[in-house]
Every structure is written in C-alpha cells, then in structure tokens.
C-alpha cells in the first residue's frame, strides 16, 4: 500500500477530518494508518510494536471524543505514533526522533493534542485525575478526560496511587486499560496474572449501564445511592463468580474485557461510556504489533527494531566483527561471570532484562534473577531487603528511570549502607529518545547522599573491574553508571581486578593545564589532547581519569591544585552539581585557587537527535573539548596563536 493509495488517510490532517467519516470507513482508516506507521518506521527507526497495537483504539478515541478540548492522556508515549499522525503531524512524521524534528514522545510543547508529557510510565491516571478535577473546579463540566494506560504500566506503583485517589475523588474520568500482556519484555507479576484471568460478562455490563441511565433520568438514583448499589452489585457478582474485581472493589466501574482491535465496537463502547458519571475503566485486550506478523510473533524484538524491509520483515542490522560490544552486553556477560564465582550475587531489573542484558544471567540462572515489572522504587527496596539478609544484589536501572527510586536509594539503601550494586545503564546522552530519557542528573542527584560510592568507567575494562570491586566484602552501597551503545574496545575481556575505592589514575603528564574527566567522555578528551598538542608543538596537557565521583581522589586534586593554574573538568552529566562542582568545592575548601572550567550538559533539557549530534550541540564532543582547551591555554598565557 503506497502513499498515493491512502484513499482516506491522505485527506485526514486533524481529528475533525476523521470525525466527518462514517463508522463503516474506520476499518480502512486503521489499515492505512497501520501501514503508514510501518512505512515510516522502516526507514526512520522508532517504537513500532506498541503503536501498531493501539491503531484501532487511537482512531476510535479521536472519532468519539472532541480532541483537543477533551483530554487524552497517553501512558508510555511509544503507543502514540498513530495519535501523532492524526493530529497535524502526518507530513512531519518522517522527522520523528530526528534532531529538530518532532518529539519522540507526546508533549504539550509540541501540540495542543498532547495533553501531558509521557516519556515515562504509570503517570497517566494521576495526571488525568488532576485534569478531571481541574475541569470541575474551573466550570468546564463538558470536558471529558481519558487516561490510556497499558504496555505493562499498570505494574507501576504510581498507577495504584492514582487508582486509589480516583476512587475517593469526585470525577467522571475514563481509564482505558490497554492490556497487551507486555511492557518491552513480557509483563510479570500478580497484576499480569489477574488481568489474564479477569472476565466480566459483556451482556451484564450493557444491561447494568442501561438500567443506571434510566434510574438517573427518572430521579431514582443519585451519587450516594449509586455507590451503595455498586458495592452491593460487586458483592453479589463476586460471590457468583468467586472472583473479586479489584477495580470495582475500589468503586471504579469496570467494563470488559473487550477486543481492542475491533474499531467499530470500540466506537460503540466509547459512545456509551462517554457521558457516564463517576470513574470507570474499560479493559481492552490488544496484541502488541497487531497487523504485522513479524511484530506479533516477536514483540520484544520489534518493540524498537531499527530499519527493516516492510514486505519481507527482515531487519536491516549491520553486523561487524570488529565492532566493540555494547556496554550493556559487557555488563550482562560480566554479571554472569561474577555470579558463577559468588553465590550471593542476584540480579534485579524493573522490566528491562533484555534492554540491560540481564537476560544473559536470567537464561542461565533464572532462580537468581528477578524481573520486578515497571517498579523502580520497589526494585531498589527489594534489593535492599535481600542485601540486609545476606545476598548481594546487582540492581540494574536505566539512569533516567532511577529518578523514580531516589527516596528508596536514600532511605532503604544508603542509611544502612547495604551492599547493593546499583548499575545505571543509559547514563549521559541517550540520543533519539530525548529529554525524558537522557541520563543527565544521576551524578548531581546522588552525590550529596552519604554512604554511596559513585563510579563511572571510561571503558569496558574499567566497567568489568568496577563490577568486580563492587561485589567484594565491605564495599557497601555502590553505584556504577555507564552509557548506552558501544564501547571502545574489541578485546573487552580482561582479568577481574580490584580498583581501590576513590582512586583515579593519571593517563598523561602535562604542564600547561590539567583535565579531570569521569566516564567514557575521557576517550574523547584523550583524542582532543592528542590533536591539540600535535597542532601546537610545545604545549602539553595533563589528563586524569577520576573514575569516582564519590569519594573523590584527593591525591589527584591536591596534585593538580598545587601544580596547575588552569583545570578543566569534563563529564557527560549535568554540569551543575556533578564532577566540576565537586572539584570546585574541594579546591575552595582546601585553600587552592586554580581557575576551573566545567564542561558538561547545560542547565536545560536537551532535545532529541543522535548521540553524536547532541554531544556536538552541547559542546562535549572532541571539537568542543578542543575549543575549551585552546581557550584555557590562551588565558593561561601559554600561546596566543593556539590553533
């Protein structure tokens, strides 16, 4: 199906155009929309399977509700590509996730149809409830608010907090549970099992709905009576079915489960529920990757498959024997190696075993690895509980998602200094996923916390050695942060040796300026130093790999404070509060006064693009580092003609 054969989609720019169609035309709209997503993502990679699974739901929602006046609050924005195409971004969708193109996840900064930011999971119910209450308080009683939660998001603790508040706060919101039994990997936990078993009779729901509307119209039913009837109804239904409905147990009307891929049936259901008073939940069964056989068969692989051939389903993966491995794979292989030698080691991940490569250990030691679902805070506290009673957990969380576990790291790990190894994958700039996913804040956020050791390896060898060090006795709470993507060494397997905690290393002597780097950006620092010294004979720059943000290597700081008038710090986290700030504080506290230039991410949210583009944009690539070196050398009076 080529673009010139999009008989209906070509004429749809906004939902108003969609609403002029007949219901009978909607299945064709869904077919064309699904193919458009496939066609675009085959050449411009993104999140495929999730959006294919919500095509019918997206069309039905915009057909029934008066968007953008009515609010659709998406949970996990990778479900929303169809939503973008139908809301004025069809022609620009080819720029999705590209530098200066449309955003990777819905955002009100981009479109009035995007009611809230939804790069992270489980926030839709809370945000939608706030909007529903605001509509009542501001007199906008005709506004409808819909939360669309799914892709495993119901396992997140914030979703349950929102549900609890929905049940006690006056509102008329609709919650749609897109139940596809998936997040990225297969969903896990009791909620998954509950949803698989839950079955409420459709005929019963339809009759009850009609009866309640008749009672309202004739004045026999008000809100207080309605709640009493719901409680009685729930009790009777639970006794008959020998099954308690958790949602109706919270006084949230439940409807379903229904087929989420029958667009005409969805339109009928949404029209029935649209003006119903009180909170209600529509439970839909969907298939991640629906309508595209390769994605249906392997939803995890096709969550974000990269480029592919639409007709054959062949992924266009470039393989190279000489390419260094991904940091996550070095982590996964090393964790298994350590676990074989240390029976106390266990692995914990919040729904990302494939994304962080803990599946390597999971496949060989399933009884020592735990996927706890989308629940970062629980992952940390669960790890702390195991550590308290003798185990040694490696808890792997994406850096940006660890923000949701901040209190757990402080309260449940750091206070007791428990031996939990918190591995922060995707630290630094992550690329096309943009502002919601960059691991920009972990160092600045964690640095003030007592008892934490915070480290960042410069390469794969350092990652392996830090992992080995962290599991040795007496190391306490230990953080290791490392980036997304490939490393720099093909010979990444090295002997596992201890690194002294808080000890950095001098990589190169120099006399003009000293550069203190932390993490993989040290590799670019090395290249920049080599080039600027080659271009400026007689100049020399000293380079230190700090390794640890906490504790700092005070011997290095004392040496650089005594011998250098200019110091440059380089890091791939936010410049405010990270390594540069720590070095500046130490120099001030200890009576040294070098001029310090801090390089890092700026005090703003960085947009989306390739990692290379964003590092150039933020000035922390090799060329940006060279410019700062040249300025530092000039201001130090060491060469006015520096190239």
TrEMBL record:
UniProt-annotated binding residues for Mg(2+): 151, 180
Pathway: Metabolic intermediate biosynthesis; 1-deoxy-D-xylulose 5-phosphate biosynthesis; 1-deoxy-D-xylulose 5-phosphate from D-glyceraldehyde 3-phosphate and pyruvate: step 1/1
InterPro entries for the chain: Dxylulose-5-P_synthase (IPR005477), THDP-binding (IPR029061), Transketo_C/PFOR_II (IPR009014), Transketolase-like_Pyr-bd (IPR005475), Transketolase_BS (IPR020826), Transketolase_C (IPR033248)
Cofactor: Mg(2+); thiamine diphosphate
Top-rank EC class of the record's enzyme: transferase
Molecular function terms, GO-annotated: 1-deoxy-D-xylulose-5-phosphate synthase activity
Enzyme Commission number(s) from the entry: 2.2.1.7
Catalytic activity from the UniProt record: D-glyceraldehyde 3-phosphate + pyruvate + H(+) = 1-deoxy-D-xylulose 5-phosphate + CO2
Keywords per UniProt: Isoprene biosynthesis, Magnesium, Metal-binding, Thiamine biosynthesis, Thiamine pyrophosphate, Transferase
Cofactor binding note from Swiss-Prot or TrEMBL: Binds 1 Mg(2+) ion per subunit. Binds 1 thiamine pyrophosphate per subunit.
Domain Transketolase-like pyrimidine-binding, residue spans: 325-490
Family statement: Belongs to the transketolase family. DXPS subfamily.
Assembly and oligomerization: Homodimer.
Protein name: 1-deoxy-D-xylulose-5-phosphate synthase
